[in-house]
User: Which sequence fits this backbone?
């Protein structure tokens, strides 16, 4: 198995489980909430995945899949003023729909845990006149006028330009984050991956170049995080700080990636695979 085969296997291992069931549940949820809140004027574009899944970078390491649902302005305003009735109505409609799932309120969201260990977090939101969204996020706080559609469009377009390499890099970085026990937000990882790959000369190449891609990304990250500790997310223009812990972790990963490439040149494939396994964990075949 050559290096391309190894990274192909790793990428396959990282795929979100049961994607058909995931999509079907979101559609079922959207129809039910539409009947409760929109009644005579249901809108199919008022509920969608965002976050890692919306950017097509979610993987098995993604703990929760984020779903947005747009409320009527009056209902959202009630929610903002602390009216528990709207959120309880939101939760009741969701709980009645999925009787085999655990459904609990978490701050201003409804968390769904299904028996097959798939997790949804459903966010009540408002659609602003300029096409952006306002909602409360447990990690980002109160978000006003967030351009979720623009953000997802930017990532999807760059993914097309890079032969899906942006998507695969984002998933690999989630495996690295888990293996290295990092506390970095997925949005920051994706923004960094985007910033790196848009200027990477081999950005549209095949899996045969993934060892170089990973090495070059970790080298880029170690340098960038030191010189510029913030990143702007494409499309939404949301700004985030890069955690300082990423510098040491990226530097260590770059050393291992270089070692893996050197061992491959010596045809020491077993040693090379072990180096990649140290970076990406159980998902990378040894």
Assistant:
């Amino acid at each position: 198995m050559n290096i391309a085969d190894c990274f192909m296997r790793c990428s396959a291992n990282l795929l979100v489980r049961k994607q058909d069931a995931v999509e079907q549940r979101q559609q079922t949820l959207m129809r039910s909430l539409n009947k409760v809140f929109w009644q005579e004027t249901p809108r199919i574009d008022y509920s969608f995945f965002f976050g890692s899944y919306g950017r097509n970078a979610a993987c098995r390491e993604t703990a929760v899949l984020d779903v947005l649902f747009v409320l009527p302005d009056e209902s959202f305003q009630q929610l903002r003023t602390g009216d528990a009735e709207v959120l309880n109505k939101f939760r009741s409609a969701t709980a009645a729909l999925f009787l085999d799932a655990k459904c609990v309120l978490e701050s201003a969201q409804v968390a769904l845990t299904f028996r097959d260990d798939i997790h949804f977090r459903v966010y009540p939101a408002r659609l602003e006149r300029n096409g952006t969204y306002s909602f409360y996020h447990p990690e980002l706080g109160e978000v006003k006028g967030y351009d979720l559609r623009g953000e997802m469009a930017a990532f999807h377009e760059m993914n097309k330009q890079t032969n899906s390499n942006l998507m695969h890099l984002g998933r690999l970085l989630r495996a690295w984050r888990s293996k290295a026990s990092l506390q970095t937000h997925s949005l920051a990882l994706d923004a960094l991956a985007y910033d790196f790959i848009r200027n990477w000369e081999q950005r549209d190449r095949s899996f045969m170049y993934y060892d170089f891609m990973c090495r070059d990304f970790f080298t880029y990250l170690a340098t960038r995080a030191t010189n510029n500790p913030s990143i702007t997310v494409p499309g939404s223009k949301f700004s985030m700080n890069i955690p300082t812990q990423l510098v040491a972790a990226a530097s260590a990963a770059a050393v291992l990636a270089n070692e893996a490439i050197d061992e491959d040149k010596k045809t020491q494939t077993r040693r090379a695979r072990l180096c990649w396994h140290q970076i990406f964990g159980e998902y990378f075949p040894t």
The mean pLDDT is 92. The two ends are 10 Å apart (CA to CA).
